[in-house]
């Protein structure tokens, strides 16, 4: 059985699948050639990350396709229900990347609190001629300890982010449509497992109270931003928003406007509308710490994703390793 891993797959995942008798191809096929490639090469399993789209036309045109796997969490690039209605198994690896995304969130929190994003842009250009002024500019940093992080969406990634934030001495509050309270367990070196119970609040309350607001919600079915222009009015002027969820989760234009008008201190964005061609003007705002959708992009997460995906395929296709 042939597998096309169009956005790549870890070496461990490939090896597990090959041991189980699959042929794994990692050639990247451009979107407009994908249907022909799948049909001409008798691909029965198509694996993607967020870059490749698997829409209705592909499900309609590729009658031999049996399985579509999303190595990662968000399935907004796949017409999941449509595919399933055509008898194709469509699955993701929901737990494998939580640690990596949470670590990126905390990295952005430290970055924003100490202006690393700005200093990293300025030092190569002005570091020699203007050192003293740059020191003055970036010496108004703050500590994370004692600050409040508001987590919007308390699923696996939200909970992992909470663990890291608690480890930094932050107060953690959250909003989740289906949870009023949650107990997360911290595995602390030398101290064993420590349970911490966290309280949920209304979204508006979380936004009002937080110094850092981190989004962990899936793409919204109606396409509306969770943090829109109206909700941004509740943010403290000293607060930051961190979006590692999906581009549309924060209204980018409203965010840019709020930063420009001093209504919010800044933001960190790992995800954007119109990836892979985000709005250039947004990228030029110096108060925004930027990364190119790398939340799940660590060796460890990709290894876990590859192995989890291999297990899922072997199970779903009823092939024994
Ligand atoms: C996800 O939904 O798993 C993340 O956004 C990661 O996407 P990626 O696999 O394209 O890096």
Write the layout of secondary structure elements.
Layout: E1 2-5, H1 11-19, E2 23-25, H2 34-40, E3 43-48, H3 56-61, E4 67-70, H4 80-85, E5 89-92, H5 98-114, H6 116-126, H7 131-137, E6 148-152, H8 156-167, E7 171-175, E8 181-188, E9 192-199, H9 203-209, E10 212-215, H10 229-232, E11 240-243, H11 252-260, E12 266-269, H12 280-283, E13 288-290, H13 299-316
Parallel strand pairs: 1-2, 1-3, 3-4, 4-5, 6-7, 6-10, 10-11, 11-12, 12-13
Antiparallel strand pairs: 8-9
Helix pairs in contact: 1-13, 5-8
Bound molecules: 3-phosphoglyceric acid.
3-phosphoglyceric acid binds at residues 49-51, 72-74, 97, 293, 295-297.
What's the quick description here?
This protein is an alpha/beta fold. It is 36% helix and 19% strand.
Low-confidence stretches: none
The whole-angstrom Rg is 22 Å
Bound molecules: 3-phosphoglyceric acid
Discrete helix count: 13
Q: Mean pLDDT score, rounded?
A: 97
Q: Mind summarizing the main beta sheet?
A: 6 strands, parallel
Which class best fits the helix and strand makeup? Answer: alpha/beta
Shape: globular
Question: How are the strands of the biggest sheet laid out side by side?
Answer: 7-6-10-11-12-13
Distance between the termini: 14 Å
Tally of strands: 13
Return the string of H and E elements: EHEHEHEHEHHHEHEEEHEHEHEHEH
Strand content: 15-25%
Helical fraction: 25-40%
How would you characterize this protein structure?
There is one protein chain. This protein has 321 residues and is α/β, with parallel strands linked by helices. It is built from 13 helices and 13 strands. The chain has a 6-stranded parallel β-sheet with strand order 7-6-10-11-12-13, sandwiched between helices. Helix 1 (11-19) runs parallel beside helix 13 and helix 5 (98-114) packs across helix 8. It starts with a strand and ends in a 5-residue tail after the last helix. Bound molecules: 3-phosphoglyceric acid (3PG). Residues 49-51, 72-74, 97, 293, 295-297 line the site of 3-phosphoglyceric acid.
